[in-house]
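Running low. Any example?
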Amino acid sequence: MNNFMVTVLGIVVVFIVWMVGVYNRLIGLIEAIKNNQRQIDIQLDRRFKVFQSLIETVKQYMDYEKTTLKDVVALRNQAQAAQASGDEKARIAAENGISKIASGLSVVFEQYPDLKAGQNVLQLQEEIVNTENKLTYSKQAYNDSVERYNAKKKSFFESMIVGLFQSTLNQNFVYWSLTDEQIKSNENYTVKF
């Protein structure tokens, strides 16, 4: 073997090692996104269970919870059906609906001073707030991982590898975000005294 063949063989080996490294990094990013999706699922399940506990605790105080429970269950069923069918946009819309209900609960509790003062209700209210915070963090981590993956797969050299392994590496993930209506509503929000 002459030096030319050794050089060519060395370049081929380096190229293959580089290609495998890029492939493995992209697979790692995809798996991180899937893990972040599972973390969101865990928080969504936790939130649903806390809602159920809270509603059971306050049943003797108000009729409102019947509608709230029905709405939460309906939205949760929509989210699960959307997840099963792979419709991330519908799932996100349903889960955002549950978040909207959660944000309105403290106003309802203000109408029931005895209920508001109950230790179980206070703990459950705190759990809802904590769960919503964890859910927000999980959604942010998911969106960040989607952003890292999209940036990496669009990079010049990485995009060539993605082109070679389209079915495995060219994945499209939906960002968790607010609807245009929710954004407009938040922008138009005013505090009234």
Remarks:
- The radius of gyration is 24 Å.
